[in-house]
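Colleagues,

For the teaching module next term, I've prepared a clean inverse folding example: a structure given as tokens, and then the sequence designed for it. I'd like students to try predicting residues themselves before seeing the answer, so please don't circulate the second half yet.
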């Protein structure tokens, strides 16, 4: 067959193709416009429920082909564009919040033009406001000690361990003459379970100690401040140390959490970039140590180089505590060991073998 014979039938076929294609394009356009005829057209099943507009679409391949033939460029969905812009705004705002460095701010500003103008302006304003808030806040010092694990991101920085106390009624001059402590001396027995006592301003004896359990997940609750077993033990220990107190009433009992770092090492840190400082981890010896930590932080904030800023706890970073259940098991095992060592020494009147193991666990 010659080319001239084939030509008319080929032209006819391509005309038919073009017509069919144009029909399809028209139908697709009508569907995209949401015309009722088109949506109830032959391709929609009659029993199929009418879908909402955002679900009405052509098959992806068909749509792409038709859009290509119409010369329509593929455009990102508005929801995609919006969420991208929103994400960028959040990035800029967060950068603004955390930034006190020119480099980060410049980076954030470079990101801003990528967004739509209104969002970019909003992001820049919020960034400026955040920076202003940060500046007006001045310096932030985290000094929450035993409560630190409640703060997001600090859950394993400090373990709250409870110390509980009891206090006697005010003693008479005659009772004090028998007890001693005329110079208001503080006292302890330096055993494995920490105890501490002193004469109060209103002539009572305040006496405290550890022994309360560590609570799962570093939790702190008001009811943990009271533990009758520990209060009874404190009462017995004090009257054992000072038998002269026989018959004296105990009128007060209370307690609270103190903070212990994983390496038993207190720390004072300050970050000049974020202007945030931290002091804590005093392992229950914070009455005096907080004063020194406060003055050290003042030096650090004011950029003063002093003998205090040279102390080994400045800039010290303790490792984080283990996750639960290891934390619960480890701390309570340590408390139990201390109790057993205490009993062994009371029984044998010799240093407990468990003592060296405890020393290894709590030294740094
Ligand atoms: C019963 C008991 C007896 C003790 N006896 C002695 C002793 O004899 N000698 C000694 O040296 N030490 C003792 N200690 C330990 C001593 O109390 C602490 O080491 C010391 O108080 C730590 O001081 P601080 O200011 O760092 O923390 P804390 O005194 O614990 O103060 C932390 C503060 O942070 C606040 N806080 C918590 N969360 C937030 C938050 N999200 N936002 C704002 N504020 C928050 C808390 O309300 C609290 O006021 C004892 C502790 C207890 C519980």
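(Answer key — instructors only)
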């Amino acid at each position: 067959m010659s080319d001239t014979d084939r030509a008319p039938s080929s032209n006819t076929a391509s005309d038919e193709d073009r017509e069919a294609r144009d029909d399809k394009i028209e139908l697709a356009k009508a569907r995209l416009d949401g015309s009722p005829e088109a949506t109830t057209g032959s391709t929609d099943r009659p029993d199929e429920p009418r879908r909402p507009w955002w679900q009405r679409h052509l098959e992806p391949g068909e749509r792409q082909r038709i859009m290509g033939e119409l010369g329509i460029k593929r455009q990102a969905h508005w929801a995609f564009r919006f969420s991208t812009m929103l994400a960028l705004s959040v990035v800029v705002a967060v950068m603004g919040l955390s930034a006190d460095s020119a480099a980060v701010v410049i980076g954030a500003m470079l990101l801003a033009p990528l967004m739509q103008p209104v969002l970019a302006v909003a992001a820049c304003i919020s960034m400026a406001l955040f920076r202003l808030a940060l500046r007006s806040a001045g310096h932030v010092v985290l000094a929450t000690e035993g409560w630190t694990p409640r703060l997001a991101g600090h859950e394993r920085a400090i373990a709250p361990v409870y110390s509980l106390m009891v206090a006697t009624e005010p003693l008479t001059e005659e009772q004090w003459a028998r007890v001693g402590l005329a110079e208001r001396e503080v006292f302890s027995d330096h055993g494995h379970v920490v105890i501490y006592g002193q004469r109060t301003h209103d002539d009572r004896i305040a006496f405290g100690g550890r022994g309360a359990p560590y609570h799962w997940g570093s939790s702190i609750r008001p009811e943990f401040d009271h533990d009758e077993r520990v209060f009874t033990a404190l009462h017995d220990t004090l009257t054992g140390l000072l038998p002269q107190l026989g018959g004296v009433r105990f009128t007060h009992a209370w307690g609270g959490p103190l903070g212990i770092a994983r390496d038993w090492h207190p720390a004072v840190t300050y970050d000049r970039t974020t202007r945030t400082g931290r002091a804590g981890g005093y392992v229950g010896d914070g009455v005096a140590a907080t004063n020194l930590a406060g003055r050290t932080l003042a030096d650090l904030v004011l950029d003063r180089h002093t003998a205090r800023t040279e102390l080994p706890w400045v800039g010290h970073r303790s490792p984080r505590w283990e996750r639960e259940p290891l934390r619960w098991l480890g701390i309570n095992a340590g408390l139990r060991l201390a109790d057993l060592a205490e009993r062994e020494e009371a029984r044998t009147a010799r240093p407990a073998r468990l003592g060296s193991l405890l020393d290894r666990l709590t030294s740094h």
